[in-house]
Automatic annotation (TrEMBL):
Organism: Pomatostomus ruficeps
Major site of localization recorded for this protein: mitochondrion
Annotated protein name in UniProt: Prohibitin
InterPro entries for the chain: Band_7, Prohibitin
Subcellular location: Mitochondrion inner membrane
A biological process term (GO) from this entry: mitochondrion organization
Repeat as UniProt keyword: no
Gene expressing this chain: Phb
Domain Band: 2-103
Top-level taxon of the source organism: Eukaryota
Biological classification of the source: Eukaryota, Metazoa, Chordata, Craniata, Vertebrata
Family: Belongs to the prohibitin family.
Task of the protein: In the plasma membrane, cooperates with CD86 to mediate CD86-signaling in B lymphocytes that regulates the level of IgG1 produced through the activation of distal signaling intermediates. Upon CD40 engagement, required to activate NF-kappa-B signaling pathway via phospholipase C and protein kinase C activation.
Entry's Gene Ontology cellular component terms: mitochondrial inner membrane
Length: 107
């Protein structure tokens, strides 16, 4: 069963990760052969603190709050290339680089 606001990617032991994203509701799986990987597709907040330097060599502490959610059609690709913890692996590096460039250009 896939809860509201969630999507599932099906991993098949013989065919690998299926390209079809399964929506909310009850679905049939072949026991032992197929396994669902559930993703939360609701918008979620995340706070990311960054310490960066400005042009005049001052340290600047910034905390950025992001609302994010995955693109549901890309969930099989996200799972195979990044993993279930995509937000932990992708968001900090992206936000750090963006905030550093903003602080340098604004000062």
């Amino acid at each position: 069963a896939v809860d509201a606001g969630h999507r599932a990617v099906i991993f098949d032991r013989f065919r690998g990760v299926q390209d079809v994203v399964v929506g909310e509701g009850t679905h049939f799986l072949i026991p032992w052969v197929q396994k669902p990987i559930i993703f939360d597709c609701r918008s979620r907040p995340r706070n990311i603190p960054v310490i960066t330097g400005s042009k005049d060599l001052q340290n600047v502490n910034i905390t950025l709050r992001i609302l994010f959610r995955p693109v549901t059609a890309q969930l099989p690709r996200i799972f195979t290339s990044i993993g279930e913890d995509y937000d932990e692996r992708v968001l900090p590096s992206i936000t750090t680089e963006i905030l550093k460039s903003v602080v340098v250009s604004a000062a």
